[in-house]
Amino acid sequence: MTSPARLAVDPIACDGRGLCAELLPGLITLDDWGFPVIARGDIPASLQKEAAAVARLCPRLALRLEQAAPNSPDRGQIPPRRSSRLVLRPDTGVRRPGS
Could you give the C-alpha distances from 68 to 42, 50, 92, 96, 99, in angstroms and in order? Predict the structure, then answer.
């Protein structure tokens, strides 16, 4: 039996290429801007090898496979990663001060 694991994404490192969602569509979808949205809960044992490969193949190394603590109170739930920071993307036409 494999130990429970979860996928996590570093939203700062990720640049929204979408490779992860193409390689692991059962667990990862993309939001409106092309950034990954990871399914809540532990990764099924049958997909853990594929999830580890996807984390290694991430061009920005923004994905990581974490071992879930067996006695954690939120077991079975991946907490949503929300950010209140404003992200300026080059294609929005917004100019940064001094540029």
Answer: 8, 17, 38, 40, 44
